[in-house]
Amino acid sequence: MGKQRVLSGVQPTGNLHLGNYLGAIRNWVEIQDQYENFFCVVDLHAITVPHNPATLAADTYKIAALYLACGIDLSHSSIFVQSHVSAHSELTWLLNCITPLNWLQDMIQFKEKAVKQGENVGVGLLDYPVLMAADILLYQADKVPVGEDQKQHLELTRDIVNRFNHQFAKKAPVLKLPDPLIRKEGARVMSLTDGTRKMSKSDPSELSRINVLDSPEEITKKIKRCKTDLVRGLTFDDSERPECHNLLTLYTLLAGKTKEEVAVECADMGWGQFKPLLTETAINALKPIQEKYQEVMADKGYLESVLRDGREKAETIANQTLMQVKAALGFSVPL
Q1: 105-to-96, 102, 112, 131, 165 alpha-carbon distances in Å
Q2: Is 113 a catalytic residue?
Q3: Range 90-116 average pLDDT
Q4: DSSP one-letter code for 195
Q5: For the chain, the helix, strand and coil percentages under 3-state DSSP, each to the nearest 5
Q6: 201, 221, 227, 257: which one is catalytic?
Q7: Which partner for 212 in 16, 144, 183, 331 could form a disulfide, CB atoms 3.0-4.6 Å apart?
Q8: pTM
Q9: 111 an active-site residue?
Q10: Cα–chain-centroid distance for residue 58?
Q11: What is the CA radius of gyration of the chain?
């Protein structure tokens, strides 16, 4: 038996922030030797909301370089760009045709983002979960590392698998049912300006997030200005103090300590003592990533070779799955 396969990706919409790193990529790094991994930069997803075409390509390469800088090991993992494998778009169309519209209209993320976009909301935003399903199913992934906010999309993927196999592959399933890999601690890193909201690239305030490539000066300013309360003594899991819980969680993850250790260490601290501690810890934790990122970006040929190799490996598997899906649907074979 070979290793189980994992598929995941991040959008190239600007810089990675601590929510992306602690909630996703660091988890990929920690478990990558246990699986056969395919990590893509999901640039097709990036255009489901208004985007800047002048920076899309550069942002795509930046995220790929950050994958390597954060510790993705090419002996266990392949890195590629989603749009470089055309099977993603083709399988999305095929799955669209068997996915009931009401399944997509019930997606919480669509409802939330559609409200923000108003009359300008595009079909791509509604269809985002089907594209995500195609991403996963092309590689017959066994496991998908997802945050809590993406869990509903993975459930939709499983519904699509069951529907497809029941209608078109009754004798032998064509598509594999994927399972979620959800990290309990840090799976949902919250905003620095509002501890009840997820840290997000779409937040208009830069002060709401710490980016992986932020300078020490920027990190210091953001933590100094982050929202806190007037209570002395820092505790986890107090519903009245969401910012306190979030900042302690950040410190726990960045310092590599247990929740119990941090609870004891910070029990009697005030914010004036804790914020400098969190600042120093964040700067030290991100420094090696930033140094590795600069090294990768300085060698464009190396980064391009990584993405080329990743695309070739991805295409081999993706095209095979696509052929099986098209055969099950009854398409003719190209002459």
Answers
A1: 13, 5, 11, 15, 23
A2: yes
A3: 87
A4: T
A5: 60, 10, 35
A6: 201
A7: 16
A8: 0.91
A9: no
A10: 18
A11: 21
Q: Which two tokens stand for residue 153?
A: 């999309």
Asked if pLDDT for residue 188 goes beyond 80, the answer is no
Q: Which class for 309: exposed (0-12), middle (13-18), buried (19 or more C-beta within 10 A)?
A: middle
For residue 1, name the pLDDT band (cuts at 50, 70, 90).
low
User: Token pair of 41, please?
Assistant: 């930069």
Say what the pLDDT of residue 187 is: 59
Long-range Cβ contacts of 245-248 (<8 Å, 24+ apart): 245/195, 246/189, 246/190, 246/191, 246/192, 246/195, 247/274, 247/278
Strands 36-41 and 77-81: parallel
Provide the sign of the torsion angle of the four alpha carbons 193, 227, 293, 10, taken in this order.
negative
Residue 23 three-state SS: helix
Rounded CA gap, 71 and 112, in Å? 33
Higher pLDDT, 185 or 299: 299
Catalytic one of 111, 116, 171, 198: 198
H/E element, 249:
helix 242-255
259 is catalytic: no
Q: Which residue type does 288 have?
A: P
Residue 117 scores a pLDDT above 70: no
Confirm if 178 and 158 have CB atoms less than 8 A apart.
yes
The mean pLDDT value for 229-242 works out to: 92
247 or 187, which is more confident?
Answer: 247
CA distance 10 to 301: 22
Residue 232 contacts residue 270 (beta carbons within 8 Å): yes
What pLDDT score was predicted for residue 109?
A: 75
Instruction: Tell me, letter by letter, the H, E, C secondary structure of 136-157.
Output: HHHCCCCEEECCHHHHHHHHHH
Q: Determine contact, residues 269/206, Cβ cutoff 8 Å.
A: no
